[in-house]
Every structure is written in structure tokens, then in C-alpha cells.
Specification:
This protein is an all-beta fold and 588 residues long. It contains two helices and 32 strands.
């Protein structure tokens, strides 16, 4: 039996780009809703005392499912690198996996799957470690190997799993503990550098609560850096506070608010930004010997700790950050826009507006952002007078969908447009996010979908594409995306988690819903997906293909009043290229 082909057309022209701005239906009541957030962050989460509903399924016929998990907190905020695409066509993917006996999930650990260039392995049925772990970061290691760093929250150690040949062989292990007398360390992020990717770089958090409720070097929560070039036998430096991140710059640095960029142009760098205190990049051009602090968000209160009670309503970030380095060594950052308020002193907490909207972009060629540029409107009906819009720094915002309105937002402590991932290739900055999908809801909350947009560095962003906007994802919560940094095969490679309930079973207290099965989905995308007039002449039209769905043939009418080279690519809903043609000329 033939299966119908749902066609997505990608059309490229040699003209000038334009973009359109559309408005949602106004919902002023959402601007007044406020929620509470605190400094307390934990690997362990309180669950409702109820039986798991084993009949709730998140199966999607068109999803490429490579694994599953019932434990569904993949990060408290910024995502680690969880997927990597190699030049030989192979792909490795990781996630936190736990399926047995919630709420404790004694089997929790790193889920791993491998694509050999032709097929994915069967979904894993057990973790790769021999003890309970979480929060894996993945990187290439050695000439043909791989390495994963996760945390053992019970012991407060970091666990490294590695092998000489990716996708094959037994795993080897070593550990890294915290500073003497303050040795609980968790929420790690890792990358590797060097010609053979054999230099390991690690950042992790030293939480005050798990270390006797005592400050470390004057900080109530610190991010420390370690490096090893001999497979973890020695570390130099080990658990150091980098210049620019000490107590003379901040009161604390939050767990999970950081991520490494993929090394490029001889540079390594990471971003850390909790959303209220300064947002910074730490950048090194000598593989970690020396570091430069770059501030991309100047806070009204750099020493904010949730206790002052005097923070007015102001615009900042939501703790979900992305970072990338281009071929010229310029660092780029993206983060969710969030509005905050603290008018309750001495409670170690503050308020945020859960309907805060907007995804913000910045790079090193731009001046630092501040609250005046981000502004404090919660859910703007018109962005045109925002400095971030005028300067090309508003990468995304919630999109309208006919007469549909926002029903509700499940708790991730995130912006409506958040969880960004960024890839740069050939001068194009591509940003993916997990953002609210108006018109897709379960009558209580809207679902989040995987969205994408790009810019060619001219301050103009493409039309937004919803990659989950089809009949197979009417009831799909698509969250925690991780995107491979390599695009050598002309594809984006995305890993995300999905089930059929908005929110997750770990947040807030009580959680949004009981534990259910979640699928880990691999989403491959060509550089262009969707009918997009990227380069438009003074009189240009492209019609929807007819018929759609199509079995053997389809017709797309393109009209241009100017001479142009037109490349037409047909891509199915799995992101697979099925046809491509080039036409030259003008007219019909």
C-alpha cells in the first residue's frame, strides 16, 4: 500500500530578503499573572503519591523514536549537548533515562543510542553506567571515541563514561569530585577540544544547600572549571573559580544556567545567565589557560540573590541559554526573555511572569543588553517599538493561529519562546526553540512545539517554522531540544523529548501531571523546510503545491517578474529530500 507524501517545499532565490510581522489576538489578563521562583534547585523532586497510569501513550507514527524515559526533567534550564553528528554520517544521542519505580527511579542513568550511517540501534533498555546518574553531556573523544559526563547526585561526584570507538565496545569510567571540604558537585556541562578532541573541559555547580548550607569563597552557589588532557588522571586546573566569576562580581551562579559552545576557530567558550544578575560569556583563545569575561546583559542588580526585596518589574532572561562560535571566532548567544519582580525581602525567592514572551539574540559585535532594551511588557501585542526588535535581536515570539488564543502555559519556569539551540554555518545563524503553539492545547495548557528561524547576519529573521505543526502532533509536548553543532551533511540533527501532556511530572509542586512515558525523538531537517520566500523580487508568487498529500506527482506554480535562478526542493515531513530541480528565467 502506498503512503501519501505530505510535501514541504523549500525555494531559494537570488533577491533581497523581507520578513512579515503578524499579531496575536490580545489577551491583556495574561499580563497580570505572576508566579514564584527560588534559588533552591535539586536533582530530586517531590512527586504525588499516586499510581502511574501505564495506559497513557506518547506514540507518534511519524516520529523517529530512538528511546524513552518516564523521568522527564532533562534540565532545570539550559540544555547540555546531547546529540552529535560526525563527518562519517554516524550520530550519537544521549538523555537522562529512568523508567522504574517513580518517584525515585533507581534505574535512572544515561540513555544512549547510536546511528551508524544507515540505522539507529534498538532503543536502550538500561543505562550505560552502573549507578544512578543524570544530566549527561556528550562530546567526541580521541581519534574515534566518545565521552559522556553526568552527575552522581547521591555522592556529589561527576561520572565520566568513555570508549575508544564510538558506538561500539565496553564503556570505561572515571570520576571527578569537588574541592576538599566542599566536595558536593553536580549539574555538569562538558566539552572536548584539541586536534583529536582529547582535552576535557568541565564546568559544574557547587550548591550551598548540599554543602552544609555554607558559602564557598563568598558565593552561595558557584560554577567551577576543570580541565584534563590525560583522560582524567590529573586535572589542571581543578575546580577553580575563573577570574570574573568570583564574589566581587556576583552573589551566586545558578545551577543549570550554563552551556558550552562547540569549540571553533581555536576558541572555547561557555555562557552563564540566570536571568536577573549579569549574563556573561567566558571565552578562552588558549584552550583554557586564560579567560576573558564578556558581559552581554548588564543587570540592574549584579548581586541579586532573591533577598533584597527591591527589584522592580524588569526585563531579563529565563535561564534557558544557547551559545555558538562562528568561523571568525565571534560568540553568539540566545536566551528566553522573562520579566521579573522581587518585592518580598529575606525569602530567598522572587516572582516572574509566566506569560513572558520573546527569544533574544546577541553577538559580540553588539553592545551589552539591559532592561531598557528588553523592556518590561509581559506579552506585547506589537513589538515594533522594542529596541531588540528594531536592532534585529528579537529572534522569535509567540505566533498567532487564526482566531485561537493562549489557553495556558505549563510550568518550566521558561519564556513562552524558550529552550533555544543555535547552529551557525556559512554565515547563517539558525535558532531552534521549544515554544508555545497557539491552537494546540488540551483545554488546560497549550502544547510546546519545536520551532525554527534563521538570520544571515543582517538583522532580518526568516519566517518562523513550526516543525510539529501536523496531524501527527496535535497532542504533542515537544521540549528540551538539543541540536548537533555539525551541519557537514547539509542537515540539522535535533533530539527532543515528547509526550502527550503539557508540562512534566517533576514541576512545580505538586507537578503538572503524573509520570507518563516520554519518547526521545530524532528530528533531521534539511537547511530549508517549509514554503518560504527567502529572497523575494518586486513581484513574486509561489503557490501551495497541488495535490497535497501527493503520491507520485505534485505541481507548484512559481511566478516572478525578474530573471532568477530558482532551486526547488521537495522534502517530506521526516525532513528527507525527495526531489530537487533548478530553473532559470522569468515569468510563470
Amino acid at each position: 500500500m502506498k503512503k501519501p507524501l505530505l510535501i514541504l517545499a523549500a525555494i531559494c532565490f537570488t533577491f533581497v530578503a523581507i520578513s512579515q510581522k503578524t499579531n496575536r489576538i490580545p489577551q491583556p489578563r495574561l499580563n497580570s499573572l505572576v508566579a514564584t521562583q527560588s534559588n533552591i534547585i535539586s536533582d530530586e523532586v517531590a512527586f504525588p503519591s499516586s499510581e502511574v497510569n501505564s495506559y497513557v501513550s506518547s506514540e507518534r507514527d511519524q516520529d523517529i523514536v530512538i528511546g524513552n524515559t518516564w523521568y522527564d526533567l532533562q534540565s532545570n534550564s539550559t540544555m547540555a549537548r546531547r546529540i552529535y553528528a560526525y563527518d562519517d554520517g554516524s550520530i550519537a544521542a544521549t538523555w537522562t533515562r529512568g523508567v522504574q519505580s517513580p518517584p525515585n527511579y533507581p534505574d535512572r542513568g544515561t540513555g544512549y543510542n547510536y546511528f551508524d550511517g544507515n540505522n539507529w540501534e534498538p532503543a536502550p533498555t538500561e543505562r550505560i553506567e552502573n549507578l544512578r546518574t543524570g544530566w549527561p553531556s556528550y562530546a567526541p573523544y580521541g581519534e574515534n571515541g566518545e565521552i559522556i559526563c553526568s552527575h552522581d547526585f547521591g555522592a556529589g561526584d561527576l561520572i565520566f563514561s568513555w570508549r575508544e570507538n564510538k558506538g561500539a565496545g565496553e564503556w570505561n569510567f572515571f570520576t571527578l569530585d569537588g574541592p576538599e571540604g566542599y566536595d558536593f558537585m553536580a549539574w555538569t556541562r562538558m566539552t572536548t577540544s584539541g586536534e583529536n578532541r582529547d582535552v576535557i573541559h568541565v564546568i559544574a555547580n557547587l550548591p550551598t544547600l548540599q554543602n552544609g548550607d555554607l558559602p564557598y569563597e563568598g558565593l552561595n552557589g558557584e560554577t567551577v572549571y576543570s580541565r584534563s588532557d590525560d583522560g582524567g588522571q590529573t586535572w589542571d586546573p581543578k575546580n577553580v573559580i575563573l577570574d570574573g566569576m568570583g564574589s566581587d562580581f556576583a552573589a551566586s551562579w545558578g545551577a543549570d544556567d550554563y552551556a558550552w559552545a562547540e569549540p571553533n576557530a581555536g576558541i572555547i567558550a561557555f555562557v552563564t545567565f540566570g536571568g536577573i544578575a549579569d549574563g556573561i560569556i567566558m571565552k578562552s583563545e588558549d584552550d583554557g589557560d586564560t579567560w576573558e569575561r564578556i558581559t552581554f546583559y548588564e543587570s540592574p542588580d549584579p548581586f541579586f540573590d532573591g533577598n533584597s526585596g527591591d527589584l522592580p518589574i524588569c526585563g531579563g532572561g529565563d535561564g534557558y541559554n544557547a551559545i555558538a562560535i562562528d568561523d571568525d571566532g565571534v560568540v553568539h548567544v540566545a536566551f528566553g526573555r522573562q520579566i521579573h519582580l522581587d518585592d518580598t525581602p529575606d525569602d530567598d525567592a522572587w516572582s516572574y511572569y509566566p506569560y513572558s514572551d520573546g527569544l533574544i539574540y546577541w553577538n559580540e559585535t553588539m553592545p551589552a543588553l539591559d532592561t531598557a532594551q528588553i523592556k518590561a511588557e509581559i506579552l506585547p501585542e506589537d513589538w515594533s517599538d522594542f529596541p531588540i526588535y528594531q536592532n534585529g535581536q528579537l529572534a522569535a515570539w509567540t505566533q498567532p493561529n487564526g482566531e485561537d488564543t493562549i489557553v495556558g502555559v505549563a510550568t518550566y519556569y521558561a519564556s513562552l519562546t524558550s529552550m533555544p539551540q543555535m547552529v551557525i554555518h556559512d554565515g547563517i545563524v539558525q535558532i531552534f526553540s521549544s515554544s508555545l503553539a497557539v491552537g494546540f492545547d488540551n483545554e488546560e495548557y497549550n502544547f510546546r512545539h519545536i520551532w525554527g528561524t534563521f538570520t544571515e547576519g543582517d538583522g532580518i529573521w526568516s519566517e518562523f517554522t513550526d516543525y510539529s505543526n501536523d496531524v501527527f502532533h496535535i497532542f504533542s509536548e515537544c521540549v528540551y531540544p538539543s541540536v548537533a553543532p555539525s551541519t557537514n551533511d547539509g542537515m540539522y540533527h535535533i533530539l527532543y523529548m515528547t509526550d502527550n501532556l503539557p508540562g512534566n511530572s517533576t514541576q512545580p509542586d505538586p507537578p503538572t501531571h503524573d509520570p507518563v512515558n516520554n519518547n526521545m525523538v530524532y528530528l533531521p531537517l534539511n537547511f530549508q523546510v517549509g514554503i518560504e520566500n527567502q529572497f523575494v523580487s518586486s513581484n513574486f508568487e509561489v503557490a501551495q503545491n497541488m495535490t497535497n498529500p501527493a503520491y507520485d506527482e505534485t505541481t507548484i506554480q512559481v511566478v516572478s517578474d525578474a530573471q532568477a535562478d530558482v532551486v526547488l526542493t521537495l522534502i517530506n515531513i521526516l525532513g528527507q529530500k525527495v526531489y530537487q530541480t533548478t530553473q532559470s528565467g522569468a515569468g510563470n
